[in-house]
């Protein structure tokens, strides 16, 4: 039975998510499979890949053929390298310890490269955020500068109205003070009339 290692699509529209499976070459792409070997999520940068390396190597050693896309993913995770090293051990070209040491060295180097890429992406993301902020700041400053003449014009037009209103308020206050001063003597003249009348003399004693 010919076996292929390929991708089986899952996820929703616009956000695909794949299983990496070993399946009969004659079965449908998203049909039954023999074994699930891992997952591939391209919705991240870098893409998230989880795979059973030893399980994939076992299928490769038994003659399974990966599709082009699956082969790229397997190579990215070191499956193809380990398959090559296992073949070397079977032929006696190197020991299992040597093969494992070579694989671990490659894996460490690959991890460092991936981490460096993530760091560069984060820096680029931060730089882009700063760039967008500066652009928005410049746009706001331009809007304020463009609106300044209009504001000054409105202030100039409103100045006479404000001045006239202030003059009217002062005039009203002055008129109020005059009325108060004119009313003061009348209040003072009315004050004696309000004084208490003297008491009647007591009756003479007989």
Please provide a written account of the structure.
This protein has 2 domains: 3-93, Ribosomal protein S16 (S16 Ribosomal Protein, Chain: A); 95-183. Helices cover 63% and strands 16% of the residues. It has helices at residues 53-61, 68-76, 79-91, 96-193, and strands spanning 3-12, 15-24, 35-41, 48-51, 65-66. It has a 5-stranded mixed sheet. Helix 1 crosses helix 3 and helix 3 (79-91) packs antiparallel against helix 4 (96-193). The longest helix has 98 residues, at 96-193. The model has no long low-confidence stretch (mean pLDDT 82).
Can you summarize this structure?
The protein has 206 residues and is an alpha+beta fold. The protein is built from 4 helices and 5 strands; from the N terminus they run E-E-E-E-H-E-H-H-H.
Average pLDDT level: 82
Helical content (DSSP H or I, runs of 4+): 55-70%
CATH 4th-level superfamily of the largest domain: Ribosomal protein S16
Spatial strand order of the main sheet: 4-3-2-1-5
Beta-strand fraction estimate: 15-25%
Q: Provide the structure class.
A: alpha+beta
Order of helices and strands: EEEEHEHHH
Q: What is the strand tally?
A: 5
Multimeric state: single chain
CATH class of the largest domain: Alpha Beta
**What gap, in angstroms, lies between the N and C termini?**
157 Å
Radius of gyration: 47 Å
The largest sheet, given as strand count, sense and whether it forms a barrel, is: 5 strands, mixed
Task: Tell me the count of domains.
Answer: 2
CATH topology category name of the largest domain: S16 Ribosomal Protein, Chain: A
Name the shape in a single word.
rod-shaped
Annotation field: number of helices: 4
